[in-house]
Amino acid sequence: MARLADYYLVVGYDLDKRAEGEGQGRILQRFPEKDWEDSPFPQGIELFCQPSGWQLVPERQPASFFVAVLTDINSDRHYCACFTFWEGLDNPQLQKAEASEVDEADEELAVVQPAQVFAPKSLVLVSRLDYTEVFRNCLGLIYTVHVDGLTVPMETVVGNLLTCVIPIAGGSQRTITLGAGDRQVIQTPIDDALPVSGSSVAQLFRQLGIVNVLYLFCAALTEHKILFLSSSYQRLTDACRGLLAIMFPLEYSFTYVPILPGKLLEVLSTPTPFIIGVNSFFRSETQELLDVIIADLDGGTVTIPECVHISLLPEPMLQQTQTVLSMVLDPELEIADQAFPPLSTQPSALKIQDKEIRGVFLWLFARLFQGYRWCLHIIRIHPEPVIRFHKAAFLGQRSLTEDDFLMKVLDGMAFAGFVSERGPPYRATDLFDDLVANHVERIRQEEACPHKVMNHVKELAEQLFKNENPYPAVAMHKVQRPSENSQNTAQNRSPFPSMDDVAVQLFIDHAAAKLKTAPPVVKAELKGMVPSGPPLGDTVDRNGNVMANSARRLEVVRNCITYIFENKMLEAKKLMPAVLRALKGRAARVCLTQELNQHVLQNRAVLDDQQFDYIVRMMNCTLQDCSHIDEHGIAAALLPLVTAFCRKMGAGITQFAYSCVQEHMVWTTMQFWEAMFYSDVQNHIRALYLETEEGEQQNNHEQPDGSDSRREISALELASEQSRLWPTLSKEMQTERVQKEESTVFSQAIHYANRMSYLLLPLDTSKNRLLRTTGLADVESVSNSYVTNSIAGSMAESYDTESGFEDAESSDVANSVVRFINRFVDKVCNESGVTNEHLKALHTMIPDIVQMHIETLDAVHRESKRLPPIQKPKLLRPMLLPGEELVMDGMRVHLIPDGREEATGLMGGPPLLPAEGAIFLTTYRLIFKGTPNDPLVGEQVVTRSFPIASLTKEKRISVTLPMDQFVQEGLQLRSCTFQLMKIAFDEEVASDLAEVFRKHMHKLRYPQHVQGTFAFTMGQCGKMVVEHKTKDKNQSLKTLSKNLVKSAKRTIGRQYVTRKKYSPPTWENRSSFQSELDEDEISVSEEVDQSSLTLSSTMRSSDRQTMSNVVERACCRDYQRLGLGTLSNSLTRSKNEPFRISTVNRMYTVCRSYPGLLIVPQSIPDTTIQRICRCYRQNRFPVVCWRNPRTKAVLLRSAGLHAKGVVGFFKSPNAPASGPSQADSTSLEQEKYLQAIISSMPSYSESSGRNTLSGFTSTHMSTSDSSDKLRQPKIGALMKQVMGTKEDVPGTFSRGALGQRAKVISLSQPKVSGKARNPPRGKWGSIRGSGRLSAYNPDVGTRLAGKESPQPNGGPSEALFLRQQKAYLYIIGDKAQLKGGKQDSFQQWEVVPIEVCDVRQVKNSFKKLMKACVPSSSTSDPNMSFLRCLEESEWMALLHRVLQVSVLVVELLDTGSSVMVSLEDGWDVTTQVVSLVQLLSDPYYRTFDGFRLLVEKEWLSFGHRFSHRGAQTLGSQSSGFTPVFLQFLDCVHQIHLQFPMEFEFSQYYLKFLAYHYVSNRFRTFLLDSDYERIELGVLYEEKGERKSPQVCKSVWDYIDRLNKKTPVFYNYMFSPEDEEVLRPYTFNSNLKVWDFYMEETLSEGPSYDWELRGRQERAAEETPDKADSSGPKSQRHIVWPCYDSLSKAVPDAITKLLQDLQSLEAELGQTSEKWKDTWDKMKTAQRTEAKLESKPSFSSSLLMSSNLSHQRRSQGVYLQESGGGSSINLALDCEASATSTPAAGRPSTSTLYSQFQSTESENRSFEGILFKKGALLKPWKPRWFVLDKTKHQLRYYESRQDKECKGVIELADVESVIPGTPTMGAPKNIEEKAFFDLKTTKRVYNFCAQDSLNAQLWMDSVQSCLSDA
């Protein structure tokens, strides 16, 4: 029984305490005045009576009522019913104003004040019961008594109210009366555990909607902050009540304030979760709450802040819940579309609907928590049950471990309350217990069908409704309300009277006395055993994810274990990989634990080494997939096993399995140990009581029911039984049981302390493994953080000294383990009620346990070191180059597969990776050598290596090996030779060793100075490498450069004045000494360091020696070859040459990065050059680097102009002119310089004034003017293509002067948009002979130099190519720099602005290219496919751009204009373009010597910054690797593919250079300029200096030497045309990915270090001799992708024949000839033979015939056809003809066209023109017919050039070929015998040849084809 009301009070407005504008309330009266003992009076009620603040109002307001809820310190709720009405009083403002001074009151009186105002007064009831309606009636009655002036004394009413007592639950009805003629019935609920909701839940759903309420529901369960807003207080209370009702059976345990007064709003910023209601009046103050979910009841919205993430119910529950809710709330929705909807589908009444919704949530919770009782651990039964919930097991069995929502709910406070309240097995049960235990099956069947669910929900609703309203409603209520008039009229109503305290108190005392004498009410509590429901295991496996084919997998696991224990090791080894794969599945892991259990006898199983190893491997594999919470209980099942399996290790020492399975997260997780401990304690306690019961049963001898004893009794059932019996036991029995239980727990705690020390102490206690793994834990799993921190934190706690255990030797491992175990013991013992004495004893024992265990482990560790290691493959030593030395010996590692699929066996073939072996670090390379893990390919050797200098990225990774147990530390190393190594260190490698390895690697990768690179240190001892830095610190570059300058000054004999000049910072720190001097200070430094420099000594001896050295440099030879100036003995030169070789830069003072000798115009003196150079970046002024021998046009290179000219070079700072035209001295000299270049051109000097190029002729160009006209628009189009016009939307195709056939993509935007990356194939091979060109529209001009085009289709009005004059000099400049320059029509140069790719772009593009070609991990993401990544890298687009510009320049030079390339700093893109132009224009550069010369001249001499771009030293490390040279080689490779017969060198030669330019094996590609090379003395090394002939310092010498021995660099298809100019296609679609990026040879590593190849082969040949007797050997050899070298396994025929020749010569004892001599002999023989033969035969070797046929093809089929024609129209033919590759240049006029061009795909046996009769009524038409024997068909084309086949006659269908007769419409004047018919199965074809002879030939050919077939 309970009081209906605890307190009654009257609260009024406090007139005395008015603050500014804010009133306060005060309690006027309160009954009873003494606090009740069982419920103290709640403080601060005044605030809650007027939550929005106490205010006076001008008008009376209607009375209001609401219930606020207060929570006291014991978390009991008090319901405060407030009934508020308004009483008039005279305005206190007016009285105050009269009293005060007038001026003070001015502002207050500005508003007219009413004479009377109204103050609120509240009647309040405080109760612990929630009967809103009853309270409303009672307070209303009191008010009515006052207003209507009823005769009843108010004291009686209040007295009766306070003494009314009613039962709490039980379903009875109580009628009460307050003595004012009223009567009310109070209905108590049947079960007080179920919340009473009235209709508040339904109301809440109506206000907010289903989804919103579900959000709030999930938010409340996952402990978020929820705030309700409404302008009605009662609605706030209802909404909060509703939300709590649907959370049943969970109870909300945080702050719960349905109505929060405005004064307490700061409560909202509390950090804990809450559910609070606030009046909408305060909405603005809730705006800045960042983590509060705000539900606006009036507006129906729920606002979730961005930073709050609400975990929702797991699917499909969420969906199903929503469906059922909408069926409850909106039943019409389902039938809204039906044609004949049922008549009545109204939703139920609100009260019923309310219960239906609650039914849905009950049903939902029953599903969420189904089976929860099976995861309860009961760890004590007496004196009080102690119960723990095993969360991990519950989640695991429900397979919901990933589910965020359930995890949070189970971790929450509400669930903890749920467990402690519902855990006990013996208690009263309610609706939920019944549902979750007995309706599981039903709920599962219903899930899919909403209607069945609905029925179930209705049943539940009925029960819930019955709980609140067990009897039909009785109309016995009779409560007076105030009469209408009294409410409205009573103006001057008397104030609410104060009551007589004594009278009320008497009532109360009287009632209390009565209660005391009354007999106590005895309510029989119905306790019983709580049913558990079906166990979880069964429920889940039906719908849980059981792995496919699992039975077969379990079979494999079982067999393997059987084999291991039967010692059939070979069988076990075969099964092992399959077992390890199977162990990914849960079933297999469970099976493994069960199987192993069977082999344990008396807690022990002794194995031999190999068995032990296999068992441990399987255990590790099983554990590695366990999460740290071990949701499937696998680790728990293995825990007893790891202490059972062991092996003997000699002298009484045993090693247990636990020492090998420690590296798993699960062992360091506190929750895991707790759960394990509790489940074990439960089993022991169960056993304890089972024994006692069995004992008793044996005494009784009578078993009630046989079936019962056989079924396992669960611990909970036992506990329930024991709890029932507890009151009946005697005191002694009770204490005995308590003690027994306590000691059980204690003994388990000792046992677990032991177990934990086993698994936490590493075998080698010097390694702190525990802390290491938990350190890893941070990375691996966030949810585990509390354990991680706790262990780390425990390190800081003071060590427990009481234990008497202080051993100086014990390592920190021991301490941390002791602390971990101590914390565990503290926690579990406190929870399970172990006595303090026992706990202390435990704390004393633990350090001893740990110490003992450490001692046994040390012995085991010592022994285990002596064990022979389990047969790991022996480490193979790599071959080293001469001079290469090991820096670190091999460390055992595993090579892990990366994203390339070939090696993993996914593409077919055996998996070569992962492989086990060792990694070696040498002074030159990083080498992995090992054998594959897969036993099928175990005998193969896998090698992967790359030069250490090419390492671009190194990052640490952690790797889990498939075969192994541990997560290992690993490294991922990426190299710019397109290699990637993912290695995992074996467990035998100490982690500090791995660290040393990384440090050494970094030292070698980024030496302090270039002299630390392998090319310099080769052959010195390895130690020197590591200590190298001490040597060269003192002789830094700065002192070098100073000395150099000083000695230079001396020798030259005149001082150079060096001014400070602009140079970018990267250059400054590369020792640009000028920048360090002041403005005009003459730089002379005093001291000379004698030893410092080779160069200074050379120079000091004489100027001439240096000069002769410089002259020796190959460039001069090239300049002489090109006729660009000669060097006679006395450096004089003939005046009639247009150019001279200037020595102005011989001391490298004019331009540091240029060579010493430069070609400049004859007329320009050196002084001018010194002035001009300042206008250019890095002083790189224009110099000539090549001259076209035919047109005498020259190619110049320079850097871009300074953005802001150093000497006012431009017209205005913001608009630099493209052509300099300012009357400043430097500017004029600049113009003079350009003019001098122009005047050097013969075309300029010959033509009077400005004429076209027709002034000079050549055999290759017809002299008529037309050729010029043909040529010009072509170049216009090229220009347009390169520059891209503004009108072209980027990525659309500008229709340039190429007409329809060649669409062009504009190059102007740095990133070509995605759509246009692969433009249609444009064709522009050679110009001469484009048959169509003459038809071109002459007014398609080009926009040049930034001019806008006025009309949309045409170009500018004065387009260059329309004036008949062409500029003599084109300057290719950077668009960014040439903005706004005006083009002067009288200047003879023209600026072509283009966009160049930035170095950064190249760098990023290369990174992406590497990731595309060598991905680090395989991915199934379609957006990450190879082609997509390749496209995104934009590498091809960059190649396209460089090639396109180069081809434009080639065209310009070929038409007689000079070109000056002046882009960026003149050493990246400029170098690429200039080199490619020379390569395309001059056949000499396509030979070995020429290419070498080209690279030496343009790349090395002209200062491409190899060291800087390759990030070769520590200084340039930050700038990163930028492969500008590689890009150039790739471009050469693209040209090579299109013109394979033009190059003397093969593709391998290019790959060789690409590899070695980053390998640092040779000195060729080190340092940034000739100047730096001279400074180090690298440039002119004397030939005799070499220590050993083995060590090649220059890559060129190495290539020459190698080329003499083997034809690997030679291109057999080399047969150059005279003066051939190549014009490759440059579109993306024509470019191919270079196979250098993709291929690898795992059998031998990269093939670019030839010494290694030779040795490997020799080693391989020596071994197999012995085994010869074994029988015939197979000649067949399987070639695997990525393993074998294709060129070796399948060499091309010529190499093979040359090899055979050599071996035969060796056998015969002849001296073998060099391969080149043999080859040349054969070639000349072939030539003479061909001359003797009258007609070239088809059979002549493909290669040789290529020497004969002058009209060349770039692809490989050569078939001659006799028949001639004049060379000119043939030339046109050849361009227009249908070729699939560029037409290859000019036909030499000396021979006639003797060969028809064909594409590879076609084989033409016979071809010619025939007239064919069309189908019925169609005329005869001439067609070009081709007879193809290979495809066995006769094809015909529109014309000879046509590519599209018009039709095909299959020869298989031909029945006969017979002579025919002319029919109607046949061609005239053709003899009759020329006709013949072809009869096929379908129709007859009528043909007509040119004459009878021809017809006969055709018939014979077709006939022979038929007979052949």
Gist of the model:
By secondary structure, the protein is of the alpha+beta class. The protein is built from 62 helices and 44 strands. A hairpin with a 5-residue loop joins strand 15 and strand 16.
The number of distinct helices, counting runs of at least 4 residues, comes to: 62
> Which band does the percent of strand residues land in?
5-15%
Instruction: Determine Rg (CA atoms, Å).
Output: 49 Å
Q: Which spans have pLDDT < 50 for at least 5 consecutive residues?
A: 97-110, 538-548, 700-710, 768-810, 1021-1105, 1128-1133, 1205-1223, 1248-1273, 1285-1364, 1582-1589, 1663-1671, 1734-1801
Structural category is alpha+beta
How many beta-strand runs?
44
> What strand order characterises the main sheet?
25-24-23-22-28-27-26
Fraction in helix: 25-40%
Largest pleated sheet = 7 strands, antiparallel
Averaged pLDDT: 74
Shape: elongated
Terminal Cα separation, in Å? 112 Å
How is this structure best described in words?
The protein is of the alpha+beta class and 1909 residues long. It is built from 62 helices and 44 strands. A 7-stranded antiparallel β-sheet has the order 25-24-23-22-28-27-26, covered by helices on one side. Strands 41-40-39-38-44-43-42 form a 7-stranded antiparallel β-sheet, with helices on one face. A 5-stranded antiparallel β-sheet has the order 3-2-6-5-4, sandwiched between helices. The longest helix has 31 residues, at 670-700.
